[in-house]
């Protein structure tokens, strides 16, 4: 038995499960393991310091899998933007066939991707942005609810409402993102109108994820209350692990501080230190409320097959058992 959806059909993968882009985490070993499990993994383009490094990472991933995988291109409005056009060119030249865009409007990148036969899965955090992306011609939507790690947007609509509200207006394949970690989440997402799920935090806490073991153990030890929303007053909210650094950032900004007042605290180099050295208090690091559902550090293969097997059992067992045949239906 397997779960077939519009998402698996359109993106050519076995299971309706994706591993979205993750800065510092979405590297070859993890993405190849996700691909080998039959789910859809995305390398994170901007984790690679240069476009040439991305080309190497794509080649490295191909050495580890012959299954399809994609690349995440996070387009953030920054003062010194990375050379997006060059990263895009590398993606095209490498023959990648699926891209996850996120961060802002994907329009400037769509013609080149589509001209080269690349399918675009756009990740966004509101129904209006999903509808807009659909009208621009993207091939799929990943709708990211308030529960998610990283940037949940400013509307604070959790998946229970966001997913069916989006499903009512989205006709192209749509996966649900934010707060998913197990089979119950997958089945719930399908029931809410999605064609699959995207997970970040859950994949971060697997054997093949390249981050320090201490971080994985902190996720297992943590619960659903273990995150902070930083940059809220700046309207650039990010959900990160609650630690002394993130709590200080929240406090400074709540008191009217501005970005320069927290710049040193949120520096990327400090966040990287967390993942490389395992000091979970060294800086800010992304994780979502799904932390409350993550209780182990399995291999990616074990995780995906567990989610799929349990989802099938849930649908054909517990849920099917709830269906009571009416007396009238029994009448021949
Ligand atoms: C460590 C980490 C880094 C992330 N970095 C990015 C990123 O660079 N670009 C992006 O589009 N999403 C990023 N995300 C968000 C994930 O792709 C995904 O949308 C999110 O984790 C889903 O929520 P979940 O963690 O509850 O599964 C990141 C998530 C994590 C946990």
From TrEMBL:
Protein name listed in UniProt: Nitronate monooxygenase
Signal peptide (from-to): none
UniProt cross-references to CDD domains, sorted A to Z: NPD_like (cd04730)
GO molecular function terms noted in the UniProt entry: nitronate monooxygenase activity
InterPro entries named among the record's database cross-references: Aldolase_TIM, NMO
Keywords, alphabetical: Flavoprotein, FMN, Monooxygenase, Oxidoreductase
């Amino acid at each position: 038995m397997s779960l077939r959806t519009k998402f698996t059909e359109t993106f050519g993968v076995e299971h309706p499960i994706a591993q979205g882009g993750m800065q510092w985490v979405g590297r070859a070993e993890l993405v190849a393991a996700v691909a080998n499990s039959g789910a859809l993994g995305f390398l994170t383009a901007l984790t690679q310091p240069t476009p040439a490094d991305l080309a190497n990472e794509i080649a490295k991933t191909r050495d580890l899998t012959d299954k399809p995988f994609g690349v995440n291109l996070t387009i953030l409005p920054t003062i010194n933007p990375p050379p997006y056009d060059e990263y895009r060119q590398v993606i095209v030249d490498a023959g990648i066939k699926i891209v996850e865009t996120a961060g802002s409007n994907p329009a400037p990148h769509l013609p080149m991707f589509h001209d080269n036969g690349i399918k675009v899965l756009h990740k966004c955090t509101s129904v209006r942005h999903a509808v807009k992306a659909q009208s621009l011609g993207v091939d799929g939507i990943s709708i990211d609810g308030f529960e998610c790690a990283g940037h949940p947007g400013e509307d604070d609509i959790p998946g229970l409402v966001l997913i069916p509200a989006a499903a009512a207006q989205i006709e192209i394949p749509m996966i649900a993102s934010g707060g998913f970690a197990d089979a119950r989440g997958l089945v719930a997402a399908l029931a809410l109108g999605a064609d699959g799920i995207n997970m970040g935090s859950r994949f971060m806490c697997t054997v093949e994820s390249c981050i320090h073991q201490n971080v994985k153990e902190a996720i297992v030890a943590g619960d659903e209350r273990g995150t902070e929303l930083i940059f809220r007053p700046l309207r650039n909210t990010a959900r990160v692990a609650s630690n002394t650094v993130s709590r200080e950032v929240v406090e400074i900004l709540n008191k009217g501080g501005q970005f320069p007042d927290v710049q040193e605290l949120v520096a990327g180099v400090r966040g990287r230190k967390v993942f490389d050295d395992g000091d979970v208090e060294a800086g800010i690091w992304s994780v979502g409320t799904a932390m409350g559902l993550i209780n182990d550090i399995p291999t990616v293969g074990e995780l995906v097959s567990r989610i799929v097997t349990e989802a099938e059992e849930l649908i054909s067992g517990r849920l099917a058992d709830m269906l009571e045949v009416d007396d009238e239906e029994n009448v021949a």
